[in-house]
Structures are given as structure tokens and as C-alpha cells.
Specification:
280 residues, homotetramer, mainly alpha, 12 helices, Four Helix Bundle (Hemerythrin (Met), subunit A)
Amino acid sequence: MAQKAPFKRNRLKEQIHEIIFEADTTLGKIFDVALLIIISASVLVVMLESVSYIQRDYEDLFFVLEWIFTIFFTIEYLLRLYCVYKPMKYATSFYGVVDLLAILPTYLSLLLPGNTHYLIVIRAFRLIRIFRIFKLGHFMKEGNIIIKALKASRAKITVFLTFVMLLVIIIGSVMYLVEGGSNEAFSSIPRSIYWAIVTLTTVGYGDITPQTELGQLLSAVVMILGYAIIAVPTGIVSAEMISADDDHPSNTQACRFCGREGHADDAVYCKYCGNILNEP
Amino acid sequence: MAQKAPFKRNRLKEQIHEIIFEADTTLGKIFDVALLIIISASVLVVMLESVSYIQRDYEDLFFVLEWIFTIFFTIEYLLRLYCVYKPMKYATSFYGVVDLLAILPTYLSLLLPGNTHYLIVIRAFRLIRIFRIFKLGHFMKEGNIIIKALKASRAKITVFLTFVMLLVIIIGSVMYLVEGGSNEAFSSIPRSIYWAIVTLTTVGYGDITPQTELGQLLSAVVMILGYAIIAVPTGIVSAEMISADDDHPSNTQACRFCGREGHADDAVYCKYCGNILNEP
Amino acid sequence: MAQKAPFKRNRLKEQIHEIIFEADTTLGKIFDVALLIIISASVLVVMLESVSYIQRDYEDLFFVLEWIFTIFFTIEYLLRLYCVYKPMKYATSFYGVVDLLAILPTYLSLLLPGNTHYLIVIRAFRLIRIFRIFKLGHFMKEGNIIIKALKASRAKITVFLTFVMLLVIIIGSVMYLVEGGSNEAFSSIPRSIYWAIVTLTTVGYGDITPQTELGQLLSAVVMILGYAIIAVPTGIVSAEMISADDDHPSNTQACRFCGREGHADDAVYCKYCGNILNEP
Amino acid sequence: MAQKAPFKRNRLKEQIHEIIFEADTTLGKIFDVALLIIISASVLVVMLESVSYIQRDYEDLFFVLEWIFTIFFTIEYLLRLYCVYKPMKYATSFYGVVDLLAILPTYLSLLLPGNTHYLIVIRAFRLIRIFRIFKLGHFMKEGNIIIKALKASRAKITVFLTFVMLLVIIIGSVMYLVEGGSNEAFSSIPRSIYWAIVTLTTVGYGDITPQTELGQLLSAVVMILGYAIIAVPTGIVSAEMISADDDHPSNTQACRFCGREGHADDAVYCKYCGNILNEP
């Protein structure tokens, strides 16, 4: 890499890049951890600001912290823009937009002092930054197994969710027909579908409940159904998780004659060229 | 197939059949996707019509859309009847009846203008058409594994559900005896059974809750029981899903020299004696 | 068995025994199915009797049905007593007691006409008879796998439930300390434990909910905990269900020299006596 | 051990130590069971004392029992201190502190007769003693498998819970923005996050429910998501539980003649070359 950077400036760029974007060096790790602590703190401030009686008592403190976070994030954003070779590519990337959205609201509040409610909406995007936590890579190996298992079961889960969707529409419509007349809570099909989802997922708020006897009978059937259905995604993911676990690096022996790998553990002869394999 | 259709008319019939009933050709796929979009749109209209304030504002639009969908579905239904060799068989099949029920209500509304509520009941049958989505066959391979696993575990799940049914009847009766006297919500055994299902499936609406201390103790036992019981269907489906995954057709090739089997699919030489294997 | 019955009377006894107690013969199966239908009907009547407005309208019908069921069950009970070799053993067995309790309440109602509420309590024992359904043995093979898996995981589930019990006591006590002062719903430790069970099992009635912020934070932790904990019994039963499925009859090859079985599929020589095995 | 104790006193110490701290001897087991019964009884008394109407009726009985338990636990604590070689190490250990906290509140109640509410807080520490139940080691083998499986899946579950945490923060913030204005229940982000946890874990109290249509749509998505997500920890633990079950110490014996491994535990002759194996 050093050969590609003949003058001093790029050296600096590269060093900043290594600290900010990578987590391999000690300094890079320290930066990442510090960044995460500041992001978490800024998220905590956004949360606490939303609690009216805390906001009333600590308004000034929150105002100061808000600006400290914003200035820090602004410097970080500018450094990121500076040290990458293609600033536009970063600026238009997912994290680039999120990083910008994290600092914009505070500056906008100067221009639009009254309309703060909508700024909170945008400020909430700062929360997405918290996903940078996964960059730390500490748990990455474990996370990869989960992601791998989920990816492998994606198609099955899509089919399953499509089926659940259709089921929920039908259950909701039937319940609308059964309960709709006498029960205010089932006043429309979308509300009935909402009820069906609440019931089938076993969340069960209880804000909408069947009142007629037929409705209670039907919802009992839906619950028993949900009981059997909940087993499906669990079965899917369990099966994938087990096979993901089984992907241990298999026999690494290579044939001395043809050099090919992938021999079974009990193989005596190379299955590709027929020559004898080394004694394991 | 062309040999079986000596005059022009059947050629047309076959072409329409291929487009409407099959999804192998480009035109057939386009038709299927278009049909699904229209079905979904018609389902959406049925849903929105049930929301009183939307219905009030867009009554005329819904009326027009209703007739557009109905006319489209009528043409589709007639074409289906026309292009199949045995129209009666299609007309009396499951989807044939559903397709008819999807268009009938709108025509009936001309004859019975006042009694629209019952027509909504029939119109809801249109929802079942949405299951045609599965004809697209896009996800079918994945869906088949789920269906296969569910079919394989059908007997076990039936036993399990029978057991849950009996358990729920007994729990409901006991709770009726315990709570029935002092708690209006447990006023009959069927209602108590409804409560038992709501509790055992962990839905927990909270519309019926035990009030006496003995009732709360019993329901705590029921919940802990439900906790252990929920593991059973999940275990059943997981086990089947894993074995459904494992059912790859394994290589049945045997070595001509040593007769041993269990060779990998890409093996050229026998891994036990080193002789060349048959071409697969 | 015929040798043990030298005179005609015992022949009759045996035939009745075969019909009533066994389900191998056609007549025995018919009897079992008929019995189940009558038991189900009698259970249904008990249920419907508990619904006040149905009971009001059909009081006379229920009275007649009650006596028909009771007389039938009485005859059945007497026949059972008659045809077994050791009547006392049957009379004191689990099903013997249940069978007696199923007929006693109706006769007692003649002696104690007023106090019917307590008779319903005893009549509910009739429900337990419904478990005779499992005698039909139709699904028994499948049921046995479930029971086998549950028995194999019994020890693990006991440990798990003990742990959950202790956890629930501690969570309940802590929540009593946190919420007890300000929230009427957490007025005692047993009630708080009831809440902890409702929450940890994800039933979530909502009749008792934390009101203080610390209480809500703690209950959020409890829920996340419950999320992770629910995985444990499922994992236990899944693992057992899979190994119960795997119990296929392994290699049935027996050595020609020592006669011992249990050889691996790829074994060439007997692992017990060292002689060569038959070619599989 | 006897050689290390030349004078009589240490003999006594060791005997007490064996009874109190170990569960290998008959006397040790009797002591452990007796201790558990007394701990359970004392926990039960603490629980019942919290129920106001029971406390009113049995105040004197509870007072006497309280002192009996305290005196017993005091003697036990002093004996433990006496018989260990390093009393300070025990006194500062987890169970040492818990054992002290179990007796302290009753003595403090003599000094501070009025302020009983805070004493209940400390008295609740007695509950922690109940974990001594696990010392019985009766189910330990089974418990170890569970603990082993949970330990093995710890990293994955940490990643999963971190992800759930972030998800819940984002869902809570979005719902605060959507519902916050019109719905009093979503008055702050922390409350909305509490709602998100209640919903995602399918507990579903129903004390906070979305009222706007957009809010209900979003929460339906959250529930469906929770449905898919609940499969992940179950899959993780199932996979680990299965592999924990499979971890039988496999035979590491290799044949002296052909050097091949993988022999069954009961194998006498090598299954590959027929030569006799070493005595295990």
C-alpha cells in the first residue's frame, strides 16, 4: 500500500482511514470503542429527552450535550469524507447517509427553532448508527453462524410468512363476519386482521377480544393453530442451525499425486486419481 | 399434443389453457402475475370497504372497481370453462367453485339491493383465490420441504392436539369449579375452557383472569405446564425438518472390484481399493 | 386360556372381558368407539349444563340424558366388575375409581336434592374417563414416540422447572420490593410470583402490570430472560425427539463364527472374534 | 485426610465439615435435606408475611417461627465459620455473605423496631439461600448438560440479545414518533421501548397498545418479526443440546497392525484388518 502513496499527505489519509474505518490496530479499536460509547450516550440523551419530566429538569444539560455530540460527529464525518479515496461513494453509502442524518437535525434546529418535533424524527436516525457496534467484530464469528443459518432458511421463512399472511387475512375476514355485527372492536377487516396477528403470534394484548360464543370458539381454534404453527419457523431455524454447526472444516488431506482435496476420513486411495494417500 | 388437435379450434383452446392454467410459458407467467395483482387489489378493496369512514368517502370508486374486477373475473371464469376439456370437472372442483363465488355476489347485489351484509360474507370467499399465489411455484421447492415435514409429523401432531384438547377440557372444568362461584368470567365450563386455551397457548388476552388465590395458583401451574408443552410440537417439527433436510439422494454406486459403497458423487476411483469406478 | 375355564360361565366372562377391556377384536373396537361417543356426549352435557341460559331451556332434556348415561355407565361398571378375575383390584384401580365416580353423583342427587353444586364437582371426574380414548391405540405408535421423548427428557425438564421455580420466587420477591409500595397489584409476594410466572411464560394477561419505571425496566429484563429461557425446554425435547427418531434398527448382521451382532456398517471383520464377516 | 489431623480437635472440625459442606455421607445428605426443608419453610414464612390478612391473623406464630429459623441459621453459620480452615474466605464468599444476610435482619429488628419495611428487603436475601438446593447434586448430571449447552451457546445468545436490544430501541423510537402524539401510553421513548419488548417477546400485557392505524400496522409487522425471531434462540439451544447429547467420549484406540481408529468400545478385534486390539 505504501508504494501507492508517494507523498506525505496520503500517508496521513491512510493512517486516519486505518483508525476510523478499520478495527485491526490498537488505535482503531480504541477509536471504535470510544465512538460506540459516544453513540450510546447520544442515543441515551435522545431517549431521556423524550421523557417530559426529565427534559424539564435537565433541559440545559441536554442542550449542551446535544451540541457536544453534534460537533464530535461533525468532525468524525468530515474526517471520514477526507480520508476515503472516493468521498462521494461514502457520502451516498448507507452509513454515510446515516452519519449525515445524525448531525443534520441539530444544525436544522438553529434555522427552524419552533418545529422541534419533526427534528426528533430525524434525530432518531442516529439510532441506526448503533449498528456500528457489530463492526467491533468481537462476536462476529458467532453472529456469522446465526446470519448464515437465517440466510439459508430465508426462502423457507418467506414461504412460511406468505402462508401466515394469507391465513391471517382469511381468519381476520371470517372473524369480521362473525363478530363484526355485535362487537365494536371488530368494526373492519383490517382491525380483524390486526386481531388475528395479535392472536396467532400469541402476543394477546386483549384490547380486541371476541365476545360472541362462535367468535370465542373460532379464536380458540386459531390459538391451537398458532400453537402448531409456531413450531414451523423454530423447526426451520433449528435445522439450519444444526447443519451450520456441522460445517466443520473437513479432512484437509491433499493427494500427493493430483493435489486434490476433499477426501473422506477413511479414504485410503485418492478418489480422483486412484493413487494411495498419505497415512493420516 | 398437436397431433391430438386436428382442427383450428382446439389449437386455440390449448393455447388459452396453457396461458391460464399453466405457468411454464412467458405468457402464462405474465397472466399469473397479472391475475395475482388483480386478486390482491380486489381483496384490498373488500378490506377497505369494511372500514366505514373510507367506504363513506370512496363509495363510488369502490362501486366502479367492484364491477371492473367482477367483469374481469367473469371473463376469466368463462375462458377457463371454455378451454378445459371437461368443463363440469373444473366447475365442480375446489378452485372452480371459489372462482364462481368470487363473481356471484356482485351480480346478486343487482337482484337483492338491500341485503348487502350477507353478500360481504360470500364476497369474502374471493380471499381464498389468493391461495392461487402458490401456483406461481417460485418458492415451491422450499414450500414442499415444509409441507413434507408437516405431513410426516401429522400423526404426532394429531396425538399431541388430542392430548391438549383433553387437558384443556379438564383444566377448564377444574377452573370452573374453583372460580365459577366468585368470578363472573368463569360462569360456564365452555368459557373456562376458552380461558384454558388462551392461557395454555400463552396468548393471554386478560379478558378472563382468575381472581381467587387458589385459581391463581392453579393457573400458574397451567402456565408452567404450557411452557413445557409448547416444546413438544416444536420438537416434533424440528426433528422432521432436520430429517427432511437430510434426505439427499445418496450415491448408490458400488465398486466393481471390492464391491464397497458410500462413494462421494465426484469420486472417480474407489476410495477403499483404488480401482476405477463405473462412469455414473 | 381356555384350559383355565372348564365350565361355560367363564367362557362368557372371557368373551365380555375381551369386548370391554380389549380392542383387538371387531366387537371390542365397536364397543370402545361406542363407549367413547357416549363418554364424549356425557361430557358435552356436563359442559352445556354449566351454561345458565342453555340449562334453563333444556333442563328436562339434560335430566333425561343424565339418567340414560348414568344407567349405561352403571351397567358397564357392573359388567366390568363381573368379568374381571379380581374385581377388587379393578375397583381400586385408577380407572375403576373414575368409573365409579362417573355414576355416583347422579345417584347421590336423589339423596341430596338441594346440594347440586358439589355434585358437579364430582361429576367432572367423568371427564377423566375421556382419556380412555387413548386405549383405541390407533395413534399409539406416534404417541409412544412423544411419551418416550418426554420420559427421556424428564430429568432435564425437572431440573429446568426447579430452576424456573426458584427464579420466579426471586423475581417475584424483588418486584414486590420494587412495586409493592406504590402498586396495589403487587400487594404480596405470592401475587408478585404469580405475575412473574405470567410474564416469564409470555402469557401476559395484563391484570397485573408494573407501574414504576424501575418495575418496567426489571420486567423488561424478565421478558428478555423468558425469551432466552423458553428455548431450553424446546431444545431438550427437540434433542430427545431427534434421537427417538434415530432409533432405527441398526445393522442386523450376525457373525457366522461367534454369532454376535451390532457390527458397524463398514466392518469387514467381526469385532468380537476377528473372523471375516459375510459380504453385506 | 486423617494423617493431616494429629490432635482430636481437628478430627471434630473435619467431621462437622463433612456433614455441613459435603453431601457424600449419609449424615451429610440428611443435613442437606433438613437444611433445605428449613430454608423452604423460612422462605414460605417470608412470603406469607407479605400477605396482609394472613400476617394479621398469624402475627405471633410468624414472630416465633422467625426467631426459631434465625437461631437455627445462626448456629449453622457459626458452625460453618468454625469448621472451615479459612473462616474469612468463607465469610467473604458468595454463600457466606448470603448466609449472614439471612440472619442479620431479625437481629437488626431488635435495634430498629419501627423501620420494618426495609428489613423485609434484606430478609428477601434469605431467598437466595434456596439456591443451595442445587448442592444436593441429585439432578446434577442432567443439569450439567443444560448448563453445558447454555455455556456453549452463550456467545451466540449474546449476539442475538444485542441484536434484539438494538431492534427494540429502534422499534420503540419509531413507535414513539408514530403513536407519541395521539396516544398517552407512548409518551416517551423508554415507555415505547418497554412496549416493544412486551410485544416482541409475545408477552403482550395490553397495558400499552397502539391506537392509530399506522401504529397497529407497524406493531403487526413487529409481531410477525417476533414470530420469526423467537425461532433463533430456540434453534441455537436446540443445536447445542443435540451436540451436547452427542458428546460421548469416543474410543481413541488405534489398531497396532493397520493403525486405523474408530473402533467401538466393545471391539476386541480390528474391524478393518482382523487383528486383535490392545486391551483398553
